[in-house]
User: What shape does this take?
Amino acid sequence: MESDTPPLDTLDLQLLHALEIDGRASFSRIAEALGVSDRTVARRYERLCAAGKLRVIGAADSSRSGAAEWLVRLRVLPHGTEALAHALARRPDTAWVTTISSGTEITCIFRVPAGGSVPLAALARHPQVRDVSAQQLLIHLMNGRWRGRTSALTGDQIAALRPPYPNEAAPVSLIDLDRALVPALAADGRATYPDLARRLGWSESAVRRRLEELRRAQVLRLEVEVDPAQFGYSAQCVLWLTIAPAQLIGVAKALGTDDEVAFVGVTTGAHNLIVVTVLRDSAALATYLTERIGALDGIERMEATPITSYTKRTAPRS
Assistant: This one.
């Protein structure tokens, strides 16, 4: 995300934190919590979006919509990486399309409906792909989002912005409207109700009611896509860990509390734990790998692959 716009200031950081709490919070509600004008918040949001520094998107929670998540690794020829990554990003069934290992590998998440499958054979036939493998994501273990972008607000501000949805929600069955609404929100999680109604051909009241039902049931999540480099964190890495089975959950939970960690997932396959780390620089990464990861009991093998770039940032549920 290259831009000539100024670096993030305190208000930018507060706005990003506010959107992490409620991606569809009105500008007036955010402004009240931050103690600034509605117009100031709107201008900041528009500036960050126009500069490519911020995007709010909607995504269905796989665990509540009956889908399975598969982590797919594609080892590719370097000259074809960018085109293939963009092709994968355009697919509605992918999330978190990431180039790693200096452009020689693409890692992505496929969200597959119940009874569906990952198109491994088609991917393996692609002329730029040298090897493809898949591991199912079984459990997500995090105590919250990456704290590097959720530390700008006070407790009172967080409480004022938190949406009034229960921690435990009754499941809902997806309907025809949802199959159009969720992709529309994936393009713009803050699209207005009138705009969504026009695009989907449903009444504004129906769209408003259904969106709130999906959020209350925790089927629809709102994610904030923002590059950690904007916060001064330039070393992002995917760790593929093999943990002794008896210690797997304990290690996963422990890493999920680390400020350096953005995502932890238990998987099938030889590597049974995936961890995404976000650190200031390569020296901090080296320290984390040797002093934190190296000190944990039960780790049998580790592979660290630096993240080169993101093509699609819709992360797995966390």
